[in-house]
Amino acid sequence: MRRRVLVLVAATTSLVLIAFLVPLALLLRTVAADRAVQAATSEVQTLSSLVATSDRAGLALTVQLLDATSAADVTVFLADGTVVGTAAARSPLVELAARGRSATGIVPGGREIVFAVRDPAGAAAVIRTFVPDAALTAGVTRAWLLLAALGVGLLAISLLVADRLARSLVRTTAELASVSHRLADGDLAARAATDGPAELAVVAGALNGLAGRIDGLLREEREAVADLAHRVRTPLTALRLDAEALAEPADAARIGDGVDGVQRAVTLAIEQARRRTPGPGAAAGCDAAAAVRERVAFWAVLAEDTDRPTYVDIAPGPLTVAVARADLEAAVDALLGNVFAHTPDGTAFAVHLARGADGAGAVLTVSDDGPGPAPGSDPLRRGTSGAGSTGLGLDIARRVGERSRGGLDLHPGPRGGLAVVLRMGAPDEGSR
């Protein structure tokens, strides 16, 4: 932007200077030539009366004196053919003046001026002066150099002023971009200064208003989620008491573990609602192999109760990913929960965890042999479900992948059904 402003000002100023200085330079050359011609004409006009009244010796002395002090060459052609002053040939203009007509003409090397006069005997005589090109352009080069210096100076001043203005515009624009990037990174306290140019000040005010609105909406959403999660704790406490009251210790332990898992999820929801959403890669890393292995063991009990063949292939750890362990466990629970919720009992499923393609991070694949998603449905669309659920399971996993600089993909399963691939990146060096 700064360069464009400078180019625009330079082009505009140059056009104005050319339109002003070129005609002025031509005018100066014309004025200099007219001044030289006028000076030569005035000098030789004084000889007109001398030619008519003075004798030949006095006339010769006067012409020689004038020729020596003048920038032009002065010659007098007498009727008898005598030439007084600077030697010169009888040009066509001299012949024309000998017939009684004064004239001026441009000849090679300068300008020739002739006057028709009469000598003391009344015979026709001609006074000729020749103004060379050097005299016609005397001082023109110096004047042109002064004009060029003036043009360069004006152009430099205009560029200096334009540069100051462009810097102000660029600085204000860069500040707006910086504030927008800070807002995108989660710094909702960032605000833009409104003391710049009027147009940019309007943009800054609108950006500040948008930031305030986003901050307010997020605050309301966090409080609503936190309140909702807090309310869930009461029935969870009741479930824990009921589980502890069961006669069978195995059942009590199993149900207690489930309640503990829900309790952890609720606590995590409250903590996330109370803090700002971290940017990509900001989460502390965890060992994906350990987390996935633990959650698969938890769901294996239910798989056994529902006669579901389970195939597990987990690469030896540690497989460090840029995901908090609680978030990864929630994503694994969401993917396995979808298998149990949307496929009939007895449907086999497989869990495969491998290192990332570049040797960093991890790739988790959960596939099943079920019927797959309904035709025309979009399982990755948040809040959309073809089976009467909330439609948030895949979205939870997708957000976990994106926060770790990975993602979530859906493919047909190797034996039909659906294969969900969760890609998770490795944490930054500074966060390991």
Automatic annotation (TrEMBL):
InterPro entries: 2C_sensor_his_kinase (IPR050980), HAMP_dom (IPR003660), HATPase_C_sf (IPR036890), HATPase_dom (IPR003594), His_kinase_dom (IPR005467), HisK_dim/P_dom (IPR003661), HisK_dim/P_sf (IPR036097). Its main location: membrane. The keyword Transferase applies. Residues 167-219 form the HAMP domain. The keyword ATP-binding applies. It is found in: Cell membrane. It catalyses: ATP + protein L-histidine = ADP + protein N-phospho-L-histidine. Residues 367-384 have a biased composition (Low complexity). One of its GO terms (molecular function) is ATP binding. Keywords: ATP-binding, Cell membrane, Kinase, Membrane, Nucleotide-binding, Phosphoprotein, Transferase, Transmembrane, Transmembrane helix, Two-component regulatory system. Its EC number is 2.7.13.3. It is a multi-pass membrane protein. The chain crosses the membrane at residues 143-162. Residues 366-395 are annotated as: Disordered. It is an enzyme of class 2 (transferase). Residues 227-428 form the Histidine kinase domain. This is histidine kinase. The lineage of its organism: Bacteria, Bacillati, Actinomycetota, Actinomycetes, Pseudonocardiales.
